[in-house]
Amino acid sequence: MELSVRIERVKESIKTRIVEATQKDDDKTITLFTEMLRDIKTLVHDVGEKLTDIEKKVGITPEKKGKPVASKAAPLAPVVANVVAAPEAKEEPKGSSEAKPKKGKGKPADKDKKKVPFARHLWSKSDDIITLYLYKFDVAQLPYTLDEVIGKLGVTIGSFKMRRNNFKFLDGKGGLQNFSEQSKEIFDDYNPKSEEELRKIVLDLLK
Predict the structure, then answer these.
(1) Rounded to an integer, what distance in angstroms lies between the CA atom of residue 163 and that of residue 132?
(2) Is residue 95 within 8 Å of residue 152, measured between CB atoms?
(3) How many Cα atoms sit within 13 Å of 131 on the Cβ side?
(4) CB–CB of 131/163 below 8 Å?
(5) Are 163 and 180 in contact (CB under 8 A)?
(6) CB 153 within 8 A of CB 127
(7) I want to staple 198 with a disulfide (CB 3.0 to 4.6 A). Which of 11, 66, 182, 193 is the partner?
(8) How many Å is the Cα radius of gyration of the chain?
(9) What is the dihedral of CA 165, 198, 126, 152, to 10 degrees?
(10) How far apart, in whole angstroms, are the C-alpha atoms of residue 122 and residue 125?
(11) Packing angle between helix 125-137 and helix 195-205, nearest 10 degrees?
(12) pTM of the model
């Protein structure tokens, strides 16, 4: 009889007895489960015999059990021998002088660098004339943007705004009071000029 058929019969027998066991008293239940255990043991024995037959067919002898069977197509030993081991990572010396930069803390070399303060811009009369024009008329009539004019002056945006506010104060419209004598002189001399007159001067200075 085929092993699969025997397994199915035992399974059906176990199912039937389980149903009967739920409907009978305790003594009968013990008897039924004892019979189930016997059937299971029989099944295990038959499976063992079937496995023995399979082992004989594939050429596994008792002394070879537990040992890997080499494939005829690709023997295991040559494959393992051809595997190249990955090179070991070299450990860096702990006392290395080259420290790696840490995230968010900058490079170690930055600690040795001293911060150089920005050089203070020495405002010339030309700078003041251009700034006065920008205070009065902005860049609408100039072929430059405000950033381009500030770049030509060589000052920061903050420095430019402070100087412009000095002229605003001299014009009596608020602004910053700490103006220089030069700014006062330029304001007195050039403030009365028209936009066109002052623009011609500024364009010459920006060349």
Answers:
(1) 9
(2) no
(3) 30
(4) yes
(5) no
(6) yes
(7) 193
(8) 50
(9) 80
(10) 10
(11) 140
(12) 0.45
Q: Would you put residue 61 in left (φ > 0), alpha (ψ -120 to 50) or beta?
A: beta
Lookup result for tokens 């007895």 = 17
| Token pair listed for 161 | 């705004």
- Looking from the CA of 182 toward its CB, the CA atoms found within 13 Å total 10
Q: Find, among 178, 166, 159, the residue nearest to 121 by Cα.
A: 159
**Cβ-contact 6, 39 below 8 angstroms:** no
Q: Who's near 30: CB < 8 A, 6+ residues apart?
A: none
Question: How far apart, in whole angstroms, are the C-alpha atoms of residue 198 and residue 14?
Answer: 112
Query: Measured in whole angstroms, how far is the alpha carbon of residue 90 from the centre of its chain?
Result: 26
The per-residue pLDDT for range 25-57, each reduced to its tens digit, is: 566 666 777 777 787 777 777 777 777 777 777
Domain residue ranges of the chain, discontinuous segments joined by +: 3-64, 125-205
Per-residue model confidence as pLDDT tens digits over 142-164? 999 999 999 999 999 999 999 99
